[in-house]
Specification:
Elements: H1 7-37, H2 43-75, H3 82-116, H4 120-159
Helix pairs in contact: 1-2, 2-3, 3-4
């Protein structure tokens, strides 16, 4: 398979990472500064929320890296290999880790929302939880299908 067939997906993966880098470098520090300077009522809940958001960036970027590796395997015509199954497994684990981090953050997000009278804050956390759950389930299904395809391919290779 030609490398140009996965260029679009590589660009999409790169574009997915840019807003998170911007958030980690500029958005979250700005939010912390505004909370301290503005003496927000929810400032006492901000430290665990910011810590959790930074912590969730680690599995997010690792999952993006695994996705680029998966595209590399597709470019090399080794998509039906154990390496691809392992990459999907790692993506699934990263999505589960993000889900767990945001589940742990939900009480703090609810307390922040109550303190600042901002009902949309917990909704954002729920969207992230459900999105990462969908990604985890999708990666698990793809992992299972890929395993079955590899087993079928090896059986066919032995038959011929």
């Amino acid at each position: 398979m030609k490398q140009t067939s996965t260029v679009f997906l590589r660009i999409v993966i790169f574009l997915m990472g840019i807003p998170i880098v911007g958030l980690c470098l500029f958005g979250l520090p700005w939010m912390a500064k505004e909370a301290v300077v503005g003496e927000m009522a929810a400032a006492r809940y901000l430290a665990p929320v910011l810590t959790g958001m930074y912590a969730s960036a680690i599995p997010f970027f690792f999952a993006l890296f695994q996705a680029t590796r998966l595209l590399h395997y597709i470019d090399r015509s080794t998509a039906f290999s154990e390496l691809s199954v392992q990459a999907l497994k790692k993506i699934k684990h990263c999505a589960v880790a993000i889900t767990i981090i945001y589940l742990a953050l939900m009480p703090f997000l609810v307390l922040m929302a109550e303190a600042d009278d901002a009902p949309g804050v917990p909704l954002i956390g729920l969207v992230i939880i459900f999105a990462s759950l969908v990604i985890a389930v999708f990666a698990a299904v793809l992992q299972k299908l890929l395993k079955e395809a590899i087993e079928l391919k090896s059986e066919l290779d032995l038959t011929i």
